[in-house]
Every structure is written in C-alpha cells, then in structure tokens.
Input
Amino acid sequence: MRRVLAAMVAVAAGGALLVGCGSDAMEPSGLPSESSTPSPTPTTASPTPTPSATSSDPTAFVHQYVEAANRALTKGDVDQMAALSGPNCAFCSQTATSMKTFYANGGSYEGDASWHIDELGKPNGTDPVSISVYIKVKPHKVISKRGASPEPEEGRTLLFDFTLAKGNGQWKVKDLVVN
Output
C-alpha cells in the first residue's frame, strides 16, 4: 500500500513511476508552438493570473489546470483541480485522491515540487482538443508521511498529453497521459 501511494505521489509531483517510465528525464523536443517563433519562452504556472475555464483559449485553460494542480501539490487543496477535471479523467481523480491521502497522513515537500510549464504545444482539434505540454519539476524532497525522513526526488521534465472537452461551455480535462 505504501509503495502504491508513493508512486501516486511521485506522479502527482511530476515523477514517472506510475506511468512506467524510467528515471531518465525527457528533454523538450520542440513541440509545434502557437507562435511563429522557433522556441517558446518558458513559463511558470504560479505568478500570473489565469483566465476562467470558460475562456475559448484551451492553452489558457491548461495554465489554469497546472495552477490548480500546484495548489493540490503544495497545499493539499484538490477542489479546484477536481472542478477542472472531467468525470472520466482517471489520472485526475487518482491524483486528487492520492494528494488528499498524502496530506491526511502528514505528507509534505521540502523545496519546489510544483509543475512548471516548460513548453506548450499548439492545440490540435476543436472539441475535443489535444495539447502536448512539457512540464518541468525541480529537484525536491518528499516526506511521505508524518515522522518519515525526507527522500530526494530528482528534477525532471515530462511530456503531458492533455485532452480537453467542453461541457456546459467550460473546458474540462477529459484525459491526461504522462509520457
């Protein structure tokens, strides 16, 4: 049970354990960007305000979802992330459940475990929309439960494939795959 929870927390923090990837970090390979510039400027999810989920721009929604995921990671507050997730998004619901359990058991992080958008691809489709995003996670330490010793987690860059769909005029994460 502890190993399953640790794997879920590692994925929630940006790790690759649950999805079966090795520990080697993936490097951004130049996703098709929305602009004509050759390389998008790296952005982070935390300091900028985000548009509403009702925005017609799916990339703005991805930024909002990453901010909500970061709130779940850093504070254990999964409500906004759950509200932005569709009812059938397995990754979304598993991550929310794992984060609730992690914090209920006294888990915490030392350092920055947040997701940072490193590169955002061009949206593909209209509804549903697919967007590939490189998410960077800095090295940090995971304290898996109250009283546990901090365990180092390597920094890495992972490819997240979002599938978004609109329901009642709002974007929701229909599916999220971590490669």
